[in-house]
Amino acid sequence: MSDKTPVEDLEDLYETAPCGYVSVSPDGKIVKANSTLADWLGCKAEDLLGRSLHDILSFGGRIAVETHLAPLLRMQGHVHEIALDLLTANGDKIPTIANAAEKRGTGGAHLFTRLTLFKAVDRRTYERSLLEARLKAEAESKAHREAAVVREQFIAVLGHDLRNPIAAIAGGIRLLRGEQLTARAEGILTEMHKSVARASGLIDDVLDLARGSLGGGFVVRRDADAPLTPVLEQIIAEIRVIAPDHRFEVRIAIDEPVYCDRGRLSQLASNLLSNAVAHGSTDEPIKIEAVTEGDCFVLSVANSGDPIREEVLPRLFQPFFRGDVRPSRNGLGLGLFIASEIAKAHEGTLEVSSSIDETRFTFRMPTDVRAG
């Protein structure tokens, strides 16, 4: 075995390199090209000499040279990774990535431009597939957004249209209550009234969902023009009537006024209390606290009963999520979602903790944050 290190044949290295080499004069004529490039194009290297560089480029490649490669070469003397399509003798395209640099003389005169060309068939195919995938994803995303808007508009319109017959039924019930009725008829009217109230609540929830989705969130109108305490007391009184089997422990100690949307906070409190009634045990009282702590208003509702499973907690405030539904609670699963959105609209938070001892929802918000 010889101990001599092989000497690289520079001429062979140029001619058979795994890339194409071409040198172009200032007037765009090919003055030298290697065999690799000639093989790609289906001709001999000597056949390329004297021809215009444009002759071996596709139409798009010519535009790229005139609008991108040539101006950059004049400004900085080199260009890296320009996409150029070559044209073979049969008219087929060969996608390449080109690097170019100018060769200048001692006086700065432009002698010729050297280009190194690398085949990019796989790379260009990959880039095109990425582009196609992006365009497809954008089209699908747009279609989903448009479908969501139509769906939400439909929900909003449907909710409004349902109010009219519900209002008519409620009006009829009020009129009948003024008549002389049998005990059985009174019982039927009472059940009808409960059904109307439930239907109205479901419609309100659906409308809130639609408004929140279409408008980018819940709209609240905050002020401190009236006390919050009577509003919460009324909600608690209504829940006591609806849930006579439950006991309630109430503590309200609010430093008025509280800068809030009292209607929305009554809705939040009602949803939390309804949730506690539906899922809480009757063995222990439902605990309600509404207090001010420093510059914060805090409302909490706690009930005993089975704890909320750990895997359910992260999805508890999502719309239409109902977790473990009981026969007594077969709504749409919007109550906690709406309560959470009302909390956010008040720049507050709604959190839940659940253990074997109790499940507690806690709402916190600043008492005097002025909008804008």
Tell me what you see in this structure.
The protein starts with 9 loop residues before the first helix and ends in a 6-residue tail after the last strand. Helix 5 (121-176) runs antiparallel to helix 6 (183-215), helix 7 runs parallel beside helix 8 and helix 8 runs antiparallel to helix 9 (335-345). It folds into 3 domains: 10-119, Beta-Lactamase (2-Layer Sandwich); 126-215, Signal transduction histidine kinase, dimerisation/phosphotransfer (DHp) domain (Helix Hairpins, Orthogonal Bundle); 229-366, Histidine kinase-like ATPase, C-terminal domain (Heat Shock Protein 90, 2-Layer Sandwich), CATH 3.30.565. With 372 residues, it is an alpha+beta fold. A hairpin with a 4-residue loop joins strand 9 and strand 10 (359-366). The chain has 9 helices and 10 strands. The chain has helices at 10-15, 35-41, 45-48, 59-76, 121-176, 183-215, 229-242, 262-279, 335-345, and strands at 20-24, 30-33, 78-87, 93-104, 110-119, 248-253, 286-293, 296-303, 349-354, 359-366.
Label the overall shape.
elongated
Would you give the CATH topology of the largest domain?
A: Heat Shock Protein 90
Strand coverage percent: 15-25%
In the sheet with the most strands, the strands line up as 2-1-5-4-3
Number of strands: 10
In CATH, what is the class of the largest domain? Answer: Alpha Beta
Arithmetic mean of pLDDT: 83
How much helix, percentage-wise, in residues? Answer: 40-55%
Name the CATH architecture of the largest domain: 2-Layer Sandwich
CATH superfamily of the largest domain: Histidine kinase-like ATPase, C-terminal domain
Radius of gyration using CA atoms only: 38 Å
Q: How many distinct folded domains? A: 3
